[in-house]
Amino acid sequence: MPDPSDNAGCSDPPRGRLTARLKRLAGELGFGLSGVCPAVRPPGVDHLDDWLQAGYAGQMDYLADRRHAYEHPTHVLDGCRSVMMLAMAYRTEEPRPPGPGQGRVSRYAWGDADYHDLIRARLHQLADAMRAEHPEAQTRCVVDTAPLLERDFAQMAGLGWIGKNTLLLNKPQGSWFFLSALLTDVELEYDLPTSSSHCGTCTACLDACPTDAFPRPGVLDASRCISYLTIELRDQAPAELRPGMGDWLFGCDVCQDVCPWNRRSPESPLPSFTPRPDSNPMDLAPLFELDDAAFRRRFRKTPLWRAHRRGLLRSAAVVLGNTRPSGGIDILATGLRDEEPLVRGASVWALGQYGCVRSLELVRSLADQEADPGVQEEIRAVLAESC
C-alpha cells in the first residue's frame, strides 16, 4: 500500500475539492482551524515511551495500558489513511478574581455543556458530509478520548507548533482551543506541516508554573500539574504540592494565561461556551452541601463531572486551606463529617493551615473516632506540626 504521506502538499482535483468542502463546513460548524495530514506513525510516540518511563503520567495508567494503540491511527480506525485535525476556540470573557471562599475553575469548564458532546456532534456532521460523496467511507470521530497523539497530528496538519508548555500554539489563535480529529479511510488532500516553533527564548510558561511541573521545556510532569492534581488524581495531592495549588479548584490556566501568543486570541462565537453564572469563580461552601444525587444534577453535563464529588470537595478543602477565608473553618468542619475519607483528610490538612485554637480542636476531636488510615495520617501530621 502506498505511503499516504507521499501526497502531502500535492494537489489532486477530486481529493482537493472534497477536502475544501470539508474545511468550509468545519468553519461553519465553529472550528476556527482545520487541516489534514496522512495517517502515519506520529513522531511523538518515542517521546511518549520516555515520558511514561519517567513516571510523569502519575496515576493515568490507561496511557501505558493502551501504549501500543498510539503507534498508528489504524489502531483507532482500521484502514485509516487521513487524519483531519480541527481546533475549536473556547476563550470567552476574562476571568474574575476569586473572592473569599471561592475557587478558580479552568476556562474550558465554564460553559453549560461538556465539550466532548458538543464537538462530537459536529464531527459527526463532517463525517456525514464525507459519506454523502463516499458512501462506503469509514470514519471515527475523536474528541480527547481515543489513543491518538492529537498535538502531533495537529502540527503535521499545519495547525501550529507544540510549545514549551506542551500545548499546541497557533499565531492568531494562541492556545485557547479544543483539539479534535476526524479519522477516515478516504485519502484527502494533505496540508504541509508546521515546521518551526515561534516560542523563541520565551520561558514565561515554565517560569510561572506554581508547582514546577516542567522538568524541561516541552516536557510536562503531569503528576505535579495542578490540572492533574484537581481532576485526574484519585488520592490526596502530595502535601508539598498543596500550597502551590493556590485557589485552583478545577484545572489550571497559568501556563496559558502568561503566554504572549494568547494576548490577542479570539473569543469563541459559540454560546455553549458562555460562562454559567456560577462557573468561575465558584463558591466553595455550597459544594460541601451536595450529596451524590445533587452533585450529579449540578455537574453531570459539565467537565467538572470528571473530578467526581469527592475529588472536587478534596480540592475545595485545599483551596480553603491555602486562602484561609473567614468562615472557612465552619465549612471545613462540615468536611470533617463527610462520608468520603478523601474529603475528611483534605479538610484536616486545611484546618491545620489555619493553625488556630479552634481549627486544631476540630482536628483533635476527630482523632479518636477516625478509622481511615489515610485520614489518621493527615491528623498526625497536623498535630505534630502544631506542637
Automatic annotation (TrEMBL):
Domain 4Fe-4S ferredoxin-type intervals: 190-219
UniProt keyword rRNA-binding, yes or no: no
Gene3D superfamilies: 3.30.70.20, Leucine-rich Repeat Variant
PROSITE patterns the record matches: 4FE4S_FER_1, 4FE4S_FER_2
EC number: 1.1.-.-
GO molecular function: 4 iron, 4 sulfur cluster binding; epoxyqueuosine reductase activity; metal ion binding
GO biological process per UniProt: tRNA queuosine(34) biosynthetic process
UniProt keyword annotation of Cytoplasm present: yes
Keyword line: 4Fe-4S, Cytoplasm, Iron, Iron-sulfur, Metal-binding, Oxidoreductase, Queuosine biosynthesis, tRNA processing
Pfam family, one: HEAT_2
Protein name as it appears in the record: Epoxyqueuosine reductase
Native source species: Posidoniimonas corsicana
Organism placement in taxonomy: Bacteria, Pseudomonadati, Planctomycetota, Planctomycetia, Pirellulales
Protein's gene: queG
